[in-house]
Specification:
Length: about 190
C-alpha cells in the first residue's frame, strides 16, 4: 500500500481457502511522515497466516463402500495411519470423525440399512441401529471420535454394515482442523 498522505489506514487481507488469519484482519496501519519528508509505506507488511498443508477435512481412511451390495461385503477389517501434524504455533489439535454417507449410486431398489458398527482399535466409535419393522435409508452423519483413541501411528478399523441385498454405505475417518466445519466435503 502506498499513499501520499500520513494517517491511519485500514488494510484487509484476503484469506485463501484452507487457511486461517492469525493476525487481526483487517489491520489498522499508521503511515507517518519520515524525517526526510516522505511518507512511510506498507509494502513490507506481514500478515499472520496459517496454511493447511492438506485438504480439510482430510480423509485418513476411506471412504470405503461396506454392506451387502458392496465389493467389500458386510465386514471390512483394515488399518490406517494417522500421520504427524505439521508444527504450528499455537499448537493445534485436530479432531477426528467417523463419516458415514449414502452410497453414490441410484437404482430401482431401495437401500435399507439395518445396522452399522465401526470400531477403532477394538473400541466402538460409531453405532447405527434401525428400529425393528422399519425401513431405514443409509444415514449421512459424522460422529466425533474420542481424542484418546486417535494418536499418531497405525490403528485398526473394523466396519460392519447389515441391510437389504443391494444396500451399502461409504464409511471413512476424517481429520478436521479445529477451525474448520467437519460437514464440508472437499475432494
Amino acid at each position: 500500500m502506498q499513499t501520499g498522505e500520513a494517517g491511519m489506514y485500514r488494510v484487509e487481507m484476503q484469506v485463501p481457502d484452507g487457511a486461517k488469519a492469525t493476525s487481526p484482519n483487517p489491520l489498522l496501519v499508521a503511515l507517518v511522515e519520515l524525517p526526510d519528508g516522505t511518507v512511510s509505506n506498507f509494502w513490507n507488511a506481514e500478515f499472520g497466516l496459517l496454511l493447511s498443508m492438506t485438504p480439510s477435512p482430510e480423509w485418513i481412511f476411506g471412504p470405503e463402500p461396506v454392506g451387502p451390495g458392496s465389493e467389500n461385503g458386510t465386514v471390512l477389517n483394515s488399518t490406517f495411519v494417522i500421520p504427524p501434524l505439521m508444527p504450528a504455533f499455537p499448537p493445534l489439535a485436530s479432531e477426528y470423525y467417523v463419516r458415514v454417507e449414502p452410497a453414490p449410486v441410484m437404482g430401482p431398489y431401495a437401500m435399507d440399512i439395518d445396522a452399522i458398527s465401526v470400531n477403532v482399535d477394538d473400541q466402538p466409535v460409531y453405532r447405527f441401529t434401525c428400529p425393528p419393522d422399519t425401513l431405514c435409508p443409509p444415514p449421512h452423519e459424522m460422529v466425533k471420535i474420542d481424542p484418546v483413541l486417535m494418536g499418531e501411528g497405525e490403528h485398526t478399523i473394523s466396519i460392519e454394515v447389515l441391510g437389504s441385498e443391494p444396500s451399502f454405505v461409504m464409511v471413512g475417518i476424517v481429520r478436521v482442523p479445529p477451525w474448520d466445519d467437519p460437514m464440508v466435503r472437499r475432494p
